Amino acid sequence: MSDFLLQDLQNMGAKKVCLMTDRNLAQLPPVQTVLNSLVRNNISFQVYDGVRVEPTDGSFMDAIEFAKKGAFDAYVAVGGGSTMDTCKAANLYASSPHSEFLDYVNAPIGKGKPVTVPLKPLIAVPTTSGTGSETTGVAIFDYEHLKVKTGIASRAIKPTLGLVDPLHTLHMPCQVVANSGFDVLCHALESYTAIPYNMRSPCPSNPIQRPAYQGSNPISDIWAVHALRIVAKYLKRAVRNPEDLEARSSMHLASAFAGIGFGNAGVHLCHGMSYPISGLVKTYKAKEYNPHGLSVVLTSPAVFTFTAQMFPERHLETAEILGADIRTASTQDAGLVLADTLRQFLFDLNVDDGLSALGYSKDDIPSLVKGTLPQERVTKLAPRAQSEEDLSALFEASMKLY
Amino acid sequence: MSDFLLQDLQNMGAKKVCLMTDRNLAQLPPVQTVLNSLVRNNISFQVYDGVRVEPTDGSFMDAIEFAKKGAFDAYVAVGGGSTMDTCKAANLYASSPHSEFLDYVNAPIGKGKPVTVPLKPLIAVPTTSGTGSETTGVAIFDYEHLKVKTGIASRAIKPTLGLVDPLHTLHMPCQVVANSGFDVLCHALESYTAIPYNMRSPCPSNPIQRPAYQGSNPISDIWAVHALRIVAKYLKRAVRNPEDLEARSSMHLASAFAGIGFGNAGVHLCHGMSYPISGLVKTYKAKEYNPHGLSVVLTSPAVFTFTAQMFPERHLETAEILGADIRTASTQDAGLVLADTLRQFLFDLNVDDGLSALGYSKDDIPSLVKGTLPQERVTKLAPRAQSEEDLSALFEASMKLY
Questions:
Q1: SS3 A345
Q2: Which DSSP string corresponds to A284-310?
Q3: Looking at the predicted structure, is the pLDDT value of residue A388 above 80?
Q4: Which range of residues forms the domain containing residue A68?
Q5: How many CB atoms are located within 10 Å of the residue B198 CB?
Q6: What is the DSSP pairing of strand B16-20 with strand B44-48?
Q7: Would you say B293 and B278 are in contact if contact means Cβ atoms under 8 Å apart?
């Protein structure tokens, strides 16, 4: 892998490379291989290993400062979604040095300006199988001042190249494989059931103002369904046996495939509701094991029960892919059928029994709802509009799953 | 459509646009709409309507000269594969004015140099549903000196944007819909059964030397299968009823989808053998109706009978998508099952009964074989190597289909 990476860098004319990663991964083979290769080939580089898992505006700024000072002509991001997203932001603001941080942040928190400056090449090397960030033009962070997740979204920040090497996934603990796999599962389900691109409003008056998340469309649908089939076939195997290279390779590809899909179509309620869940949880023991994927999937039975009335055929179709027998199911049952299928899927994988297992109780619902409301960027892509009462009911229904 | 096209051009900073098309289409709505929009918005442009259907090196050179003189900063190609391919070549050589024509032409006929110069933006607007050229980095032409089809292949010449507007397909005569649909059918079947990317040799030592056609791979497979499903569902409807917007829209997308697939994976024997078929035919009455698609599909039953022993499961899978009942079929029968399915499919669409219906007889087989031999660019992507005797037998088996 590292030889190709090096040649690609040379083909891009890179003379001074920024390698971004996190402190943990910096000691592990995926980063060490790249480092050795850069050293051996006399390519000038600097390492930034200060990436924060679940980045914030503060951690983005730190990486941006590093990038500005370094005046790099290419970037390599080795890690999970946090690393790739941080690197996208660093590349963007170092290429647009006179911009304020909020210029490119999604409205209404930021100004959501279109990116018109040219960026440097960025090669993304994912080491988890979940975010698909190597394929998307999105960089997500916690905006600490408002205690809200938001992001930067523009196809201009999409990595030039993704090196999807399954060997990087063999070191992942089972819990990380499961939780990042749930992220893939929800990327696929949410993008496939998102509001169709031609029903989204407002329709931008100029193509350059099209949002990164355009609603479901004939291209994203293909990726969503295909990724879902892989999840159905391989996720359990990938979780249970770290040596199952076929399963782990397939999930690594599924992560990229679902990324191509949701990176165009968008996600909706599971993701919108996940941000306060992972932001507010204090007590959960496994917080280090990619809480994002878990926060996303725990509401999925409730969410798809709620959304199914809009596109029941799609909900039934995905239930069937995940193993349900839908021969006698009516479209009216679509939500319940998919929800039951998801519960069984999560139960088989020993997933915690709902938000209560993360330490949440009914008393937390108002804050969870409050934390969801600013996530309009994604929640408005849901096929069905939600009132605050709807959101309360969805959180309540997600307290226990089984 | 034309408003988006215009805004996209403006977003690209276009000040002097080259509009390429052919003389027939220049009078028709797809081109007229673009023209009116350019005029109305005061964008400086020149029209080149000298595109030759089935382009040659001579016709490419003519368009290249036009492009060089015009010093354009953006291109719009409105038409079928011939127009889009001509425009790709014009953009390439006008952007690389000191190159010899053969520099970028595929080896061994040309030098096959990698493209390292930056090209101008090119927006491709397909008006037929077959070539998928709006999605590929390939431009095919007849090299008249050697009487052989060859091309230029580099992702650098891939259009910046494709505007796949189904309304452009409603004017197509049924025969053109059928023949261009056969091109889609074969793009899907050939790319899905092409030699896998990791079995192709030689493996390039540097990623920049990767050929445009890399062999079948997990990404091209998705597009091939999906395009095939659409062909199975919609081609007959699209041929039979010009008003069937759903069917014609679906085939227009299928053309682009299959293009994304084969543009990465490549095609093999049906295409390799088609070039002498369409090049040598003199008498066929419907030559004007996209003979390419017909030349491609007439050998398909013989070709897939021949190739099936290598990847029989894929041959059975595609037969099932096209309507075969494969429950009792063995992998040994895979080729025959797919061939029978294709024959039935072609019979249902009133396709001419084999190469003999195009005026060919056994006596022509040596010249057809001779014309196929230089097509190594594609024939070596077949999953099974072919001797001259094999090629003779394939042409002979394609003389009559039913």
A1: helix
A2: -TTTTS-HHHHHHHTTHHHHHHHHTTT
A3: yes
A4: 2-167
A5: 11
A6: parallel
A7: no
Contacts of A207 in chain B (CB under 8 A): 4, 7-8, 11
Percent of chain A with pLDDT over 70: 97
Contact check, Cβ <8 Å, A222/B223: yes
Average pLDDT score over chain B: 93
Q: Which residue of A has its CA nearest to B249?
A: A218
What is the model's pLDDT at position A394?
98
Q: Are residues B162 and B192 in the same domain?
A: no
Are B142 and B217 contained in the same domain? no
Residues of A with CB under 8 A from a CB of B: 4, 7-8, 11, 206-208, 218, 222-223, 226, 253, 257
pLDDT at A289 over 70: no
Instruction: Give chain B's count of helices (H) and strands (E).
Output: 15, 7
Q: Hey, what amino acid is at A87?
A: C
Mean confidence (pLDDT) of chain A: 93
Please report which confidence band the pLDDT of residue A324 belongs to, taking 50, 70 and 90 as the band edges.
Answer: very high
State how many domains chain B has.
2
Searching chain A, which residue's CA lies closest to the CA of residue B253?
A218
Confidence class for position B62, pLDDT limits 50, 70, 90: very high
The residue among B94, B96, B60, B56 whose CA lies nearest residue B75 is B94
| Mutation to test the B interface, candidates A11, A160, A229, most B Cβ within 10 Å | A11
The phi, psi pair for A137, rounded to 5°, reads -100, 40
Interface test with A, best of B203, B214, B222 (most A CBs within 10 A): B222
pLDDT given at position A286: 47
- A218 to B4: CB separation less than 8 angstroms, yes or no: no
Closest CA to B209 of B78, B113, B73: B113
Contact A8 B207 (CB under 8 A): yes
Residue B286's pLDDT is what?
A: 47
- How far apart, in whole angstroms, are the C-alpha atoms of residue A26 and residue B157? 38
Kindly state whether residues B155 and B191 are assigned to the same domain.
Answer: no
B187 shares a domain with B141: no
> Does some domain include residue B200?
yes
CA-to-CA distance for A173 and B89, rounded, in angstroms?
A: 51
Instruction: Please list, in sequence order, all residues whose beta carbon lies within 8 angstroms of the beta carbon of residue A84, skipping any fewer than 6 positions away.
Output: A77, A124, A126, A131, A133, A134, A139, A159
Instruction: For an interface test with B, give the residue of A116, A164, A198, A206 to mutate (most B CBs within 10 A).
Output: A206
Q: How many CB atoms lie within 10 A of CB A340?
A: 15
Residues A224 and A149 placed together within one structural domain of the fold? no
